[in-house]
């Protein structure tokens, strides 16, 4: 699951990684907190028509990366706060879809480099997302009306200045660019082409990459052990079957 503030945040941030995951059979859901309804200088749009256009663009971008489920929470663009209301909405979504991994934005990022002040909606969504994941979504006495508690195993923070995970997106950089190009109300061909350059820069010139700070809230070994257990059980069951059929002969 990827939780972001605006349509296009995923395409700039993690779409190459998402496309890799969906190609390998992972089910991914996008959660977009606002529909980017103030993101234009074009007087032809109202906030309603722009939101509709941007939701359509986001769904088209998602489809290119193998994602068919997109949840829009309908918050007003530019005014998102890390409120209890948003935290609760995200707990509802997390308990509904039960993701193993959540990709979030970086709540600590006030600026990037020396020419970009991070959008307040990005920080607000990131704070609410992390607060929803830990501990609220996993606590049975918090919002019992929102469904069974759920533990998210890993959080991957995109657009961070201090990454510790580099994902090689050589095989999906073209899909990432195609996905970003769907956001016609936002980007031109120069920006789309710029993605290739930024991805290479992120990959230190070795390969196009996306970078993350990864937190493992549930150790991966736990998952491996579970897998081993299942295989072991299956083996036992098949041995039992063989023994039974051998006995009946
Ligand atoms: Zn954004």
What is the secondary structure topology, with strand pairs?
Layout: E1 2-4, H1 9-13, H2 15-23, E2 29-34, H3 47-64, E3 69-75, H4 84-97, E4 101-104, E5 111-112, E6 116-117, H5 120-133, E7 154-158, E8 165-168, H6 173-181, H7 189-202, E9 209-216, H8 220-248
Parallel strand pairs: 1-2, 2-3, 4-7
Antiparallel strand pairs: 5-6, 7-9, 8-9
The structure holds zinc ion (ZN).
Residues 5-6, 9, 119, 122 line the site of zinc ion.
Describe what you observe in this structure.
- By secondary structure, this protein is of the alpha/beta class.
- The chain folds into two domains: 2-218, Rossmann fold, CATH 3.40.50; 220-249.
- It has eight helices and nine strands.
- The chain has helices at 9-13, 15-23, 47-64, 84-97, 120-133, 173-181, 189-202, 220-248; strands spanning 2-4, 29-34, 69-75, 101-104, 111-112, 116-117, 154-158, 165-168, 209-216.
- Helix 3 packs antiparallel against helix 6, helix 4 packs across helix 5 (120-133) and helix 6 packs antiparallel against helix 7 (189-202).
- The radius of gyration is 21 Å and the shape is globular.
- Residues 5-6, 9, 119, 122 line the site of zinc ion (ZN).
